[in-house]
Model the fold of this input.
Amino acid sequence: MFKLNLFAITITALIPSLTYAAPPDDAKKEISSILNESEQAKSEGILEDSDLNLLIRNVYFNRDFRNSSHNGHGSYKAQSYQEEWGQGFILNYQSGFTQGTVGFGVDALGMYGFKLDTGRGRTGIGLTPTDRHGRAEDNYSKAVGAVKARISSTTLKYGEQIIDTPVFSTDDARLLPETAEGFLLTSNEIKNLKINAGHFTSLRAMDQSYRDSRPNDWGLYNNKGTGLKRADFIGGSYQFTDNLSAALYYSNVKDFWKKKYLGIDYAYPIDENQAVNLSFNYYNTKSQGPVKYLSREVGNGHKIDSNAWSLQGSYTYDVHKFTLAYQAVTGKGMGNPYGVDGGGSMYLANSVQYSDFNNAGERSWQARYDLDMTNYGVPGLNLMARYVSGSNISEYLRASDKSGGKVSERETNFEAKYVVQTGPAKNLNFRVRYSIYRSSGFSNDVNEVRLITEYPWDILGTFRK
Done:
């Protein structure tokens, strides 16, 4: 666990102005070129800097299991179709900070979701909770919050919150978001450098109201129903130039694994209409503790000691964008398993709508095309088509493949998104996502449809105008 003295040492190291005498005048310019202007010095007050936003989200989601006689690894599955439809409201309040050397504030999330349509034979997607008979609950709600303190440009927050880092990231792919409880330290003291450190002890699942409701996904060890015991991480990102940035993180999830992450992004603008972007992501994962040998999903009893990496390149010409990506897993077991450290902790290029293409030994490639319809008379409409193919999947999956032959998987995605540009409904957006997933017998064949409507309302911004 991070202790208070560790935070004190970290803050002291990051804020020279608190521990050293003021520099002489001739050194101020040099220091100002290294340090950011203090965020706390610009604070206008806890209410004056507040934000209050309401996201109204409607989600229809179905999965059609094309080979319903079995699911992953040949086990029998009676249900051949899943379908859920729900309405959600996410109220997000973020206060400013009180003025002074140390600023204080609060953040809060209020969430409510209710069922529009599903049945006992169609549940399982995770939009709403289900009772012990497998029936979807009519509604559910969550209320979480956090307190925060800021010195200079360093903020320490404690409570339940939404997190986004490469090694610990909450998920928001259903009706209401996942949240995590713990400490988060964020520092922006040095120009172009952002540092994060976290200590988290529980996750609240997207489709549940109670704490510690996120299971660990592996089935062999659930700690009496809970997944996450403790996750500690530290890392950061640095903007070397306007075009080049890099991120480096380390995490330790008790009883599950230790991870190292490296990410590099490079953008090269050729001219006003053309640009090239490159992105590299790498994870090294080693399992540990009582769950060192997890399950067949991660290597048939073999411990995880894997490397997973992806390289993605894209070329943009006017309203057209072409993308190619390659991803590989080496070593033992699954490449970058996740879930107990947040359902969004997967920054690999071929982690797409249905599959992550991160099986043991897997090699996968992706081809993608994006089109912005602005030049064709429909501003706000964007279209996407993507194909991902994975092969060379480890022998343990091939052995359980009842259909014989090599083990492989492939996925095709189509997506259309429209955002209203003007008028009272400005920023209302509609999104259609369609996926076709096929494998050589080790997992379900699935056709998946997601229809998502969202309206973000800046409540305080409306009244401040």
In short: DSSP finds four helices and 18 strands in the chain. Residues 1-35 form one domain. The chain has a mean pLDDT of 87.
